[in-house]
Amino acid sequence: MNYLTKRLNLAAGLCLLIGAGLLFFGLQRPVTLVVDGKPYSLPSRAFSVSAVLAESGIPLHEADRLSPSLNASLGWGAAVRLERARPVQILDAASGKMVSLLTAERIPANLLALAGLRLFPADRLEWNGAPLDPAEPLPEAPAYLLVYRPATPIEVTLENQRLHLTSSQPTLLGALTEAGIHLRAADHLSLPAETPLTGRPLQVVIEPARTVQIIADGKTHTVPVNAETVGEALAQADIPLQNQDYSLPAEDQPIPPERTIRIVRVREEIVLEQKPIPFK
User: How far is Cα 214 from Cα 221, in angstroms, rounded to an integer?
Assistant: First the structure.
């Protein structure tokens, strides 16, 4: 009897052990954990999101984005998505102010909204010096520094015509080039070409260079200048008068209507001559 009892107890213990093992492994289910867009497959016996994170040893920051929520239960083959918060700095180029955020948000337009900045269609948003699509998620990075450039209205007066531009380029020159207005070196701007655009309206006058013909040393030079007088035109053309040279018209005269200037070179020579004198 004792022998039989021992055998039965042994069999019962073995069955209990096998059942516990089956129960242990049977409770394991496949779970997909997606962290910052990278999927990881792992077997888990956890029944909630919080238990999966604890089991995986992944810490959670209050600014992280988690789906499903931390206390949600998990079924067979569940997926848990975790987007970690990243430091984001947004520089407002108009005011020079910097806004700092710690967020899991990756859509640039939403980041601007979190920073209290309104984005209009002509505004420009940059990351690493390149423009961003405000509706496209940012690529993965440890941190972000975004530059927000609000569009600047610009009134351009060019050859008695007024043009109205709106640009989010960094400088006035960039805005003019973007609008198809290409400046030559001799053109005159009422504002420096590198004037920064800050969102405040600008007014600029462009005086385009006009060509003059300068006849000098047997050659005709056609040069674009932005000058009122003959002397200014010669200086911009880098064709100076030397010594006794003079120009037609004179240096202090306005450029003539036909826009032709002649340079007369004057050469001074000393000639020594020997002349015999009869001896008396």
Answer: 5
